[in-house]
Amino acid sequence: MAGKDKQLKKLRDHHAYLNRKVAELTEDRKKDRGVESKAILMRLKKTKLALKDAMEKAKATLTKK
Question: What pTM did the predictor assign?
Answer without folding.
Answer: 0.83
